[in-house]
Amino acid sequence: MTGPVDIHAYLAEFEDIPGTRVYTAARARKGYHLNQFAMSLMKTENRERWKAGERAYLDQWPLTEDQKAAVLARDYNRMLDLGGNIYFLSKIFSTDGIPFAEACSTMTDMTFPEYRQMMLDGGRSPEGNRSIKGGY
Amino acid sequence: MARITAGVGSSHVPLLGVAVDQGKTGDDYFGPIFVGYEWTKKWEAEQKPDVIVLVYNDHASAFDANIIPTFAIGCGERYKPADEGWGPRPVPDVEGAPDLAWHIAQSLILDEFDMTIINEMDVDHGLTVPLSMMFGTPDAWPARVIPLAVNVVTYPVPSGNRCWALGEAIARAVESFPEDLNVQIWGTGGMSHQLQGPRAGLLNREWDNRFMDLLEQDNDAVRHIPHIEYLRETGSEGIEMVMWLIMRGALGSRVKTLHRHYHIPCSNTAIGHLVLEPA
Questions:
Q1: Whole-number Å distance between alpha carbons of A6 and A80
Q2: Substitution target from A87, A129, A136 for chain B, most B beta carbons within 10 A
Q3: Is this model's pTM higher than 0.90 or not?
Q4: Does this complex have an ipTM over 0.90?
Q5: Which ranges of B22-135 would DSSP assign to H, the alpha helix?
């Protein structure tokens, strides 16, 4: 990538990757408050307030109802769709005491033991997982 | 004069920090990872670098979604390990190298790299895990550190080409610093991994090793790999590998490989490690 890039073509290619939400500016904008809410859980006193009442804590943030429902359901794929970024969302599952790999497994069609075994066996193959349109 | 004597590439998976902090580095799971760093620990003890320019990314620790610097350089006196949600790592504070850091910052801006300057911040696993991998568990880190944080989270992240050029500019800046200092540059992150979505868990041993092959070669073809290739081939978080290009760009056109290590898996991630010196 040297020299000027066609931004439309650059961004369009990101939508061609199977099972992946690239954290683009559009997603960052949509998910700004969702990510800032998640970031707030870095502080002990906020974690305590969050654990004491999740819904009440969420209501203090300008999130959409969709975003709040996804957080309460711990639906990480939905949170990604609504502009969440995994490094910010990790504050939620860390507060829940769930390891990163287990949280990742909830976004796949596998159980955590199945996912862990896949990683021990060498991880998910890129074969067939690179391009939706190209199917390679 | 200050000089860059070597470059180190390494993954910075947070679980490696947990393994160090809980004394599990020799067990069946972590042993095969840590054994590949034994050579480097001995070598670092002999090399005794004065300063490490440590290229890494912050993982929603020091920076939130509000301010997103593409390239940020730490010019502070010292940095504390960040509380990433389960308390800070029990590792020493990181001592900065403000004189050299400010010199590099000024030189880079004059060289048309518009850096963000950070005076105070906490540093997360992206920075402290590589220190643990290379130096073990000392009471104080044996080298001062200049944190160089790169945005590899919010797109567009910097191109590989720009990262390589930044490395070249860092080398020029270091060489114009009058104090006699042994400086290393470390590029961290990667290798293949995807932490999100139904494709989570993607690893690509073949691509990762080809990438390390390219870093060892006497040409700069690797700087032209586009973002989409990292994304398709190495997972959404594999893009961290552009940070290795800052390290490689700082070493000049020809390099000698001193050590290389690769292991799958560590949690969700492929571990890669490379030690190079200018040839």
A1: 25
A2: A87
A3: yes
A4: yes
A5: 31-34, 38-47, 98-110, 125-135
